[in-house]
Amino acid sequence: MQLEYRQRREQLIAKIGNGTAIFRSAPMAVMHNDVEYAYRQDSDFFYLTGFNEAQAVAVLAPNHPEHRFVLFVQPKDREKEVWSGYRCGVDAAKEIYGADAAYPINELDEKLPQYLEKADRIYYHLGRDRHFNEKILEHYQSLLRTYPKRGTGPIAIEDTCAVLHSMRLIKTEAELEMMRQAAAIAVEAHNQAMAIAKPGRYEYEIQAEIERIFRLRGGMGPAYPSIVASGVNACVLHYIENHRQMQDRELLLIDAGCAYSYYNSDITRTFPVGGKFTPEQKALYEIVLEAQKQAIAQVQPGNTFKAVHDTAVRVLTAGLIDLGILKGEIDKIIEEEKYKPYYMHRTSHWLGLDVHDVGVYQHGDDKPQILQPGQVLTVEPGLYIVPDTKLAEDQPETDPRWIGIGIRIEDDVLVTPTGHEVLTAGVPKEIDEIERVA
Ligand code: GLY
Ligand code: MN
Ligand code: MN
Prior knowledge:
By secondary structure, the protein is of the alpha+beta class. It has helices at about 1-15, 45-50, 80-85, 90-95, 110-115, 130-145, 145-150, 160-170, 175-195, 205-215, 280-295, 305-320, 330-335, 430-435, and strands at about 20-25, 30, 35, 55-60, 70-75, 100-105, 120-125, 155-160, 220, 225-230, 250-255, 260, 265, 265-270, 375-380, 380-385, 405-410, 410-415, 420. The chain binds glycine (GLY) and manganese (II) ion (2 copies). One manganese (II) ion binds near residues 266, 349, 378, 380 and 410. One manganese (II) ion binds near residues 349, 380 and 410.
């Protein structure tokens, strides 16, 4: 993998010309009082280095005569390592991570100027750590003051997102290997969840089984808080309490993905807890399934990202009109977004090191994002007949028999040179596959 990280750095260096790029590791996050969450590296930082410790800064300085890649890290400290775990340290930052130079993090202020003074701009993402932002600005200002003396130095700060995130959007083979594994583990977990869900069980029992499999198979854990939502809970998009006892004649919506080697999967399935759909559940499910299939069919290189969502919206809206839940002419309903009380989210997001991965969805109003091989996106249409929802004035009141039904079907789809590949196809979604004897 070190070779791949180096290739990514070289690819980025080719884009930043004579600039110097600075990346900050993610901070430790506090869970409560003095207890911290398990550490998770910033995705940009990880993408370029594979280094997963806090209190680190990576510098790419193509303008420096010797040090193109510099790491500032926590130095080895036997006593501290006994408490909070192994540190790579300065020497191994060079040996293992391939830095041309490495320093203890407390030397950042002293050493950083030499990597900036020949650069024409600084590439840096203003992050949440305002104190660190301030530090970079101080270096920048100080170099501006001494600019006339040298005649070199940065005269602009540019965010790293444009140069880096267009790279992250196209996954390499090595990344896809990780994503396939993240997908395979989540597929197994969803299949197991389907096998054990039944009336009388609690949502958290299903969650526990899913997350057990995530770890058992070598995953880091859930890619995001698992959603196990029975009955009307499925109408809460980010329901994560998962404490309800499931009943017969209800649907169970499970939205759970696995993080594996920093890469994520994101799957949703909805199925009848007791094994059989009610007629209303089935009618809505058929619409969502058809919307998802047609939307997935749009995932083709050369097609637009937007076409995936537009297709899903059209199928969902047509279905709701057929059922009498929406009334009116389809184009007008879509244009006026009158389907939104029942379908309020987007159909897709990029997927990768972040669950809602980086990369733009359009390049301005008139310039759509064109799908390209190597991109991975979710396709996740749904219908949510939310109780007491506010409808447009010309729309009929929702017949109570539909109310409280929430359905989403979500797969992770890779754009390939000839079309697409559904990475999460191993979890059934056809009605005859998910109906069963309870
Ligand atoms: N589970 C987060 C999402 O589907 O976007
Ligand atoms: Mn998703
Ligand atoms: Mn999801």
